[in-house]
Design a protein that fits this description.
Elements lengths: L2 H16 L17 E2 L8 E9 L5 E6 L2 E4 L1 E6 L2 E9 L5 E9 L2 E6 L2 E3 L8 E3 L14 E4 L19 E2 L2 E2 L1 E2 L14 E2 L4 H6 L1 H7 L3 E4 L3 E2 L10 E5 L25 H8 L1 H20 L3 E6 L71 H15 L7 E4 L9 H18 L4 E4 L16 E2 L2 H13 L16 H12 L4 H4 L3 E3 L8 H4 L7 H4 L10 H13 L3 E5 L25 H16 L2 H4 L1 E8 L2 E7 L4 E7 L5 E5 L10 E10 L2 E3 L3 E3 L1 E2 L2 E6 L3 E9 L11
Parallel strand pairs: 11-16, 11-24, 14-15, 16-19, 19-20, 20-21, 21-22, 23-24
Antiparallel strand pairs: 1-2, 2-6, 3-4, 3-7, 5-6, 7-8, 7-10, 8-9, 12-13, 17-18, 25-26, 26-27, 27-34, 28-33, 29-30, 29-31, 29-34, 32-33
Helix pairs in contact: 6-7, 8-9, 8-13, 13-14
Length: 709
């Protein structure tokens, strides 16, 4: 080997020794507008896709999509990072892709779950050309109202004692607004209604609400109204009763044909149309205030009172109504249901009920094009003038139909019908488990976010299952489990779905989050109503709400959570809103943390990166190239110092971190404080059971700023 060759080899060996070790923590990409432009492309658009690496740290980066493998080009350098780019043209089919990174002999892959040596293609990034979710819903603060328990604004429409019979007993008009719900409270009514909501719009606006989501409002015999009686009309008990006549059910009588007061109220067109008009006025007023409205669509099943079935025979002799399928074999609605005995008419009780409940007849779409047409008309009707609702929440959406194949077919038709009527309407489904089969851009927009929000968050902060049915000590404060679950389940959604996902802490189906903080396993029938408030930890709930308001998606407040309402799972979670008895500190906290959410657009459209995790401690970043925020939690009851590598979200040595919000055992504060950044790391000493939100801003350290910590 000559001297020249020896010199070259020596320089190469020196260069290899001096080369920075491959930094996997610097790798980042996602499907947000920070790394995919445009984020919601149309077919034919040119899409620019980026991957971030540490500066001068890789040899080459490949974009891989199906059989295509193409080297990406270095687009620009910024701070500690290089940004690699490729442009592709959008077709009509979803684009699945991942990255391969090479550094000398080292090779790894990067997909939605992060860095791996062994590729998991099922968690590839995905872009669906033509799929876009409503801009107004991205990061929107939603408020769920269980109408009967929110506010009674019109006592003239209250359900009366013995107005009718439901599930074997008489209806009850609750006189004490503060009474806890009965164990079998489906037929007790507190009187909440749409006028009550109208009366509280100033309150909702001051709270900072963008969207009101109503549990079902259509005619129904129960207080929850998931047993729809008539999809075409708002229930007059929520709306307006302009003509009241008829009798209540007599003692000892259980035949609803005698419930003429109820029959008049819910079958008379004057009452039904007046109720629809009131709803139109409510929607118009909400829209004037810049708020939106989502209705609950229960299309898997209806109720046994439904005019199509009419098991109670309340429509049988009413003018303008056809015979129900229970009443007559010749009913125009017979195909809407599956009957097991074809020789039982009149009054055939042998029909399929959802989960065997005869009060919830399963709808038979596969055998009834007429039913499908009717429901698609309903889907369009309520998102069109004059009602102009802004979207649907779909109850038990994966259960609709009798086959998975038809289920997907129906929701494709439903999406086309809704979007043709109102392109800006949202379609949001209730679903437990992997919903990716419905979230490919052709069916639902998003889901109630159980798997990638409510459940992992509840386990981490409380160790409790979301019904309060189980406590797992190994899940409490388990940051590894939380991060793993969040990464895995978030990977099942594309960014447009994630940004509008309904992120709840509580709702009408699960225990109140504040009750979960007490660690009590059980339900109201075993523990009693007072146990729901015993030993609660508002400081833990404040941590959880900070996460809710800084996490990707639409933070959704279940009515009364902001006022400190407690409750075990259904029906105890449906307690009334405590007007005049609110937890004022919790209410003030919600107003300020909602304002924080709205102040920083990065909470709506920014990227998410986990930065730190240990027992009961967690930190993540919400960031773009223009804005960087770190959110840090100490769920331990004692003080902890947490060192957070904020360089991973783009914080530079020219910046400091400013505290803009913090919670603790005694409450919350917005008093500013400054934290220095040394070598890309911010060190924060947090008191027990607390959270802090830090925003990166330009500034020198040390300095003479007030509030420096």
């Amino acid at each position: 080997m000559d001297q020249k060759t020896k010199t070259v080899m020596k320089k190469l060996r020196y260069a290899m020794l001096m080369r920075p070790v491959f930094n996997m923590n610097a790798l980042f990409s996602d499907e947000t507008e920070n790394y995919v432009t445009p984020m919601e492309p149309k077919p034919g658009d040119r899409i620019r896709i980026r991957l971030r690496t540490q500066k001068d740290n890789v040899d080459c980066v490949y974009f891989i999509s199906g059989a295509l493998k193409k080297e990406m080009t270095l687009e620009f350098c910024e701070g500690r990072f290089d940004y690699y780019m490729i442009e592709i043209e959008a077709g009509t089919e979803p684009i699945y892709y991942y990255f391969e990174i090479q550094n000398g002999q080292f090779r790894c892959f990067y997909n939605k779950c992060g860095v791996s040596r062994d590729l998991q293609q099922s968690k590839s990034f995905c872009i669906a050309p033509g799929f876009a979710t409503p801009k107004w819903a991205k990061g929107a603060v939603m408020y769920q109202i269980f109408t009967d328990r929110f506010c009674n604004g019109d006592t003239g429409n209250d359900v009366l004692d013995k107005e009718y019979v439901y599930i074997g007993d008489y209806t009850t008009q609750v006189q004490d607004w503060n009474k806890l719900p009965a164990a079998m409270g489906v037929r007790e009514f507190y009187g909440g209604d749409l006028q009550g909501v109208m009366d509280k719009l100033d309150y909702l606006q001051e709270l900072g609400i963008d969207v009101v989501y109503f549990n079902p409002l259509f005619v129904s015999p129960s207080n929850h109204k998931y047993d729809i009686q008539d999809y075409d009309y708002i229930d007059p008990h929520f709306g307006k009763i302009v003509r009241d006549a008829g009798a209540l059910v007599r003692d000892g009588e259980h035949d609803n044909r005698q419930a003429t007061c109820y029959i008049n109220r819910v079958t008379g067109l004057d009452n039904l149309e007046a109720s629809n008009e009131l709803f139109i006025s409510l929607v118009e007023e909400l829209h004037k205030r810049g708020m939106r409205v989502i209705l609950d669509g229960v299309f898997n099943h209806c109720g046994s009172f439904n005019k199509w079935m009419d098991r109670e025979r309340i429509y049988e002799n009413q003018n303008g109504y056809e015979k129900g399928a229970y009443v007559s074999a010749d009913s125009p609605y017979r195909s809407f249901f599956r009957f097991q005995n074809e020789h039982e008419w009149p009054y055939n009780p042998f029909y399929d009920g959802w989960w065997g409940h005869d009060t919830l007849p399963k709808l038979n779409y596969e055998d009834s094009p007429k039913l499908e047409e009717y429901i698609l008309r309903i889907a369009k009707k309520w998102v069109s003038p004059p009602y102009n609702v802004d979207g649907w929440r779909l109850d038990v959406a994966a259960d609709l139909g009798f086959s998975l194949e038809y289920n997907h077919e129906f929701w494709r038709k439903f999406r086309r019908a809704v979007k043709e009527a109102n392109p800006d309407a949202i379609i949001l489904a209730e679903h437990y488990g992997d919903a990716s089969g419905w979230l490919r851009g052709d069916q639902w927009d998003t889901v109630m976010n159980y798997d990638a929000f409510m459940e992992p968050l509840t386990w981490f902060f409380t160790g409790m299952e979301k019904h309060s049915d189980e406590f797992r000590e190994g899940m409490l404060g388990n940051a590894d489990s939380f991060i793993g679950a969040m990464k895995y389940h978030m990977a099942c959604m594309m960014a447009p779905s994630q940004q509008v996902a309904m992120n709840e802490l509580s709702n009408h189906d699960h225990s109140r989050f504040l009750t979960r903080t007490n660690g009590r396993v059980g339900r109201v029938e075993t523990l009693g109503g007072s146990a729901a408030k015993d030993g609660i930890h508002p400081e833990v709930m404040r941590e959880a709400v900070v996460m809710q308001m800084t996490w990707p998606g639409a933070p959704t407040v279940y009515y009364g959570d902001e006022a400190g309402v407690c409750g075990f799972t259904d029906p105890d979670n449906r307690r009334t809103y405590p007007w005049g008895q609110e937890d004022q500190q919790m209410l003030a906290f919600h107003k300020r943390v909602i304002a924080l959410h709205k102040r920083y657009p990065v909470f709506t459209n920014g990227s998410l990166k986990f930065l730190y995790g240990s027992y009961n401690c967690l930190a993540y970043g919400r960031f773009s190239r223009e804005s960087q925020i770190a959110v840090i939690f100490n769920n331990n009851p004692y003080e902890e110092e947490i060192r957070v590598p904020v360089w991973e979200i783009g914080v530079t040595k020219q910046q400091v971190m400013r505290r803009v919000f913090a919670t603790g055992p005694e409450g919350f504060t917005e008093e500013p404080a400054i934290y220095p950044v040394y070598s890309g790391i911010v060190s924060v000493r947090l008191q027990g059971t607390s959270a802090v939100v830090l925003v990166a801003e330009k500034g020198d350290w040390p300095g003479d700023r007030a509030g420096i910590i």
